[in-house]
Every structure is written in structure tokens, then in C-alpha cells.
Design goal:
Layout lengths: L9 E5 L3 E5 L2 E6 L1 H12 L13 H12 L15 H24 L11 H19 L2
Antiparallel strand pairs: 1-2, 2-3
Helix pairs in contact: 3-4
């Protein structure tokens, strides 16, 4: 009887969904049953092919660029990767700007054209930043 080929180890990670990794290739954001099917597909001697696309980091980056180009720039997602410490510093800076802006508005109550612009956007960004920081604190 012929000996079956040796398999590369398979790593399974669970974050928001499941990621199945074999060698330098992985498929991510799988549900539990999709993850099981992927492992079966990679290990069953008569199948030996992935049900879901396995990509290397370079292929995944290319795919993200390809998908992003399907949307106008204004609708694309912007990701900011920063350390928690840098996020704290940014949150403090935003808070200082918002305090200053409120002082300007209080000093010039009858001159709204001289008020600092885009305060709602800055408040929204600050809330998003604090929400993400709280998520990291819970890890």
C-alpha cells in the first residue's frame, strides 16, 4: 500500500471568524462549518484542495487593492494602525482641540462664521477612537 503524502501542519485561529492557515497561505473570515469544510478539503486524501481560496499575504494585499478599486475613493475604508499609547496621545490632543474650540465659541457667541469648522467630525472621530481603545482594553 502506498504511503499518503505528508501534510503541512494546519493552524486554525478564531477572531471574528475562523482563519485556516497552511504554510504561508490562509483563508480567513470563515464560519465554523466553513472552517471544518476547509480542513477536510485540505486533508482528505481524495480531495486535497481547499474549498475556499487560500492566499499568501502578498496575494491577500493584491486582492484587497483589487476589491478597493471597485469602489470610488470616497467609499473606501481607511484603516489606521497605531499603538495604544499613540492612540491615547491622539485622544488627548483631540480633547484639547475640542476644549479650545468650545472656548472660542463661548467667546464669540454671535460670530459663528469665526468658530472652528468641522467640530462634529472631530467629535465623531474622537468617539470612534475612544471606542476602539476601549475594545483593546478588554482584550
Amino acid at each position: 500500500m502506498e504511503k499518503p503524502p505528508t501534510l503541512e501542519p494546519i493552524e486554525i485561529r478564531q477572531e471574528d471568524g475562523f482563519t485556516v492557515r497552511q504554510g504561508d497561505r490562509e483563508s480567513g473570515d470563515l464560519t465554523w462549518d466553513e472552517m471544518l469544510g476547509q480542513v477536510v478539503g485540505l486533508t482528505h486524501p481524495k480531495i486535497r484542495s481547499a474549498h475556499y481560496r487560500m492566499m499568501s499575504p502578498a496575494e491577500r494585499a493584491d486582492e484587497e487593492v483589487r476589491r478597493a478599486r471597485c469602489f470610488p475613493v470616497a467609499k473606501r475604508t481607511v484603516r489606521l494602525d497605531t499603538s495604544y499609547e499613540e492612540a491615547q496621545e491622539l485622544a488627548r490632543a483631540i480633547q484639547t482641540l475640542l476644549i479650545w474650540a468650545n472656548g472660542v465659541r463661548a467667546a464669540l457667541p454671535h460670530n459663528p462664521e469665526r468658530w472652528p469648522p468641522h467640530l462634529e467630525a472631530l467629535r465623531d472621530f474622537n468617539a470612534l477612537l475612544k471606542s476602539e481603545m476601549a475594545r483593546v482594553e478588554k482584550l
